[in-house]
UniProtKB/TrEMBL annotation:
This is Glutathione S-transferase-like protein. It comes from Marinobacter algicola DG893. The keyword Manganese does not apply. Residues 47-103 form the Glutathione S-transferase C-terminal domain. It comes from the Bacteria. Keywords: Transferase. One of its GO terms (molecular function) is transferase activity. InterPro entries: Glutathione-S-Trfase_C_sf, GST_C.
């Protein structure tokens, strides 16, 4: 579980921030495009890593739903928001996200927060 949680805070969040908050990394706007490009590359690698892990297990930590799974659903949603082709590029991750979204607790949270995962 620690590996999944630490990846969440020190890799995936940083890569996503590079895409949508480049000012956190450089002060000059002229440098924003390369930071965003680097962030997209880094984020895509994170999504690829999650896709690979999910090929061998049902949930982030193995066979049971854990605290990491909602984080991975958020990361999926961020991939959608960042215009990654999640459905075709990450089919295992997409199936996983759909399974999570079928949970009543997830449906309730998404409805309460007015979040739509699927474009």
């Amino acid at each position: 579980m620690y590996r999944g949680k630490s990846r969440s805070s020190n890799t995936v969040h940083v890569a996503y921030a590079q895409i949508f908050r480049p000012e956190r990394f450089v002060t000059s706007e002229i440098n924003f495009p390369p930071v965003k490009e680097s962030g997209r590359s880094n984020y895509e690698q994170c999504l690829t890593d999650i896709e690979k892990e999910l090929q061998y297990q049902d949930y982030a930590i193995g066979t049971q739903f854990s605290v990491v799974d909602p984080l991975w659903l958020v990361f999926y949603w961020w991939g959608v928001r960042a215009n990654f082709d999640m459905g075709s590029k990450f089919p295992v991750y997409t199936a996983y996200a759909k399974r999570l979204c079928s949970r009543s607790s997830v449906q309730k949270a998404l409805t309460n927060d007015e979040i739509t995962i699927w474009k």
